[in-house]
Structures are given as structure tokens and as C-alpha cells.
Amino acid sequence: MTRQTQGTAANGTYHHQLHNNTRMTNGIIIVDHGSRREESNRMLEEIATLFARRFEHKYPIVEPAHMELAEPSIATAYARCVKRGAQRVIICPFFLGPGKHWTEDIPRLAAQAARQHPHTTYHVTMTLGIDELMLDLLDKRVSFCIEHRFDCDACRGTIRQGGVAPQ
User: Fold this and answer.
1) Any domain includes 145
2) How far apart, in Å, are the Cα atoms of 118 and each of 42, 65, 121?
3) What tens digit of pLDDT does each residue of 63-97 get?
4) Exposure pattern of 32-54 as b/e (b: 16+ CB <10 Å)?
5) CATH number of the domain enclosing 59
């Protein structure tokens, strides 16, 4: 049984089909802004690879995407998910807060990509947001900086990076 549902997206109205009593194959797209710095783009690819490995039984189809400035785009990643068998694509913004990219740009780009694959549905998740895990990560970063006496290659503004030594 299929029923039509309708909801309001940040940039207008969207429609999708809910298939009762059937399991749909999910494709996951982890999307960031994209950068002119290749190092930043490779980081998202590594995140997507690690996520895919950790959750391979739960999410067998995972693709990275960049909203702009670099490839793969959301459209390219969407097409890859569909080619790998996805019927529903879940787009996960790799952003901290719900800014314009989440409210407008990503839904618009996702809708454009989905139009090329009318037999699929898509959903955009919430941003990373506020979570206990984020607090633990912040603590980890601050502790590392303190333990290395503010003089490490991984930190910015350090003596090695042209910063000022702490007093």
C-alpha cells in the first residue's frame, strides 16, 4: 500500500511516497560546504569512508558530497546512490548549525538531484547541532592543546604557526 504525504520544506513544499510494509534501500549522502582546499575535501571523503565501514551492515550505501566548490556534488552523489540500488536517499549535512545552507541550499540541490531519479525519495536530516558527543569532542580538542603546551603542529596560532607563546 502506498500513500501520498506532503510536508513543508524550508524552501517550499515537497512530496514523497511512503511505502507501508516494505523496506526501502537507503543511500546516505554526507555533505559539507566544499572547499578550494583539497585537504578539506579529502577530510569529508575520509569521514564518509569511516562512517561506511562502521555502519556497513546498517547503511551499505554511503557517498560523500560537497555543496559547492568541489566534486562530487550532491547530484553526483545522489546518482551514485541510485546506481548502487538506493530507493531512498538520506542527506546528512556535515554542518554544526541550521543556517542558510541547511534551510535553503541543500534542500534545493537535493530536489534538483531527485528530479533526475523520480522513482526515489529523499530526506534531509538535521545538522550535527548540540549533542553530548560534541561536548566530548570539544573537551578532547582543548585537552590536547593544553597537554601539548600550545606548541603542536595540529593547533593554529601556536608558536610553530606564528602565534604568540602563552604567558
Assistant:
1) yes
2) 30, 20, 8
3) 999 999 999 999 999 999 999 999 999 999 999 99
4) bbbbeeeeebeebeeebeebbee
5) 3.40.50.1400
